[in-house]
Amino acid sequence: MSLDERVDAVSKGIKSVNESLEPWLQSTATPTLAQNGDTRNENANAIILRKHATLMQDWDAVQDESEVLREELKEDKWLTVFRTVTDQADGMMSSLEKAVNRCQVRYLSPLLS
């Protein structure tokens, strides 16, 4: 649950960043900065856009890893259920073994003596 909440919070932040950068992302399709000769702004924009691309790659990786983790956590829940059932079965087997031993002592001992 906490993982989902944290991923949702980051997702909202990523959405906000994308909305803020939307004009810059669209401007890369039209090379107006290069035509104006303003290379300083062009370099700053290029750095921001590269960092944004890296952020988006990292975000995709985090989403993939969180999905894998969710699946593993589901498996862990089943392992807990299986362990509990196994422990209960072991307890029942111990009780049955004790009962069989008592029966053997009670009914077979007089026959063997």
UniProtKB/TrEMBL annotation:
- Specify the domain of life of the species encoding this protein: Eukaryota
* InterPro entries listed in its UniProt record: Karyogamy_KAR9
Q: Would you tell me the Gene Ontology cellular component terms?
A: cell cortex; mating projection tip; spindle pole body
The record's Gene Ontology biological-process terms are: establishment of spindle localization; nuclear migration along microtubule
* Record protein name field: Uncharacterized protein
Origin organism is Pleurotus eryngii
Q: What is the lineage of its organism?
A: Eukaryota, Fungi, Dikarya, Basidiomycota, Agaricomycotina
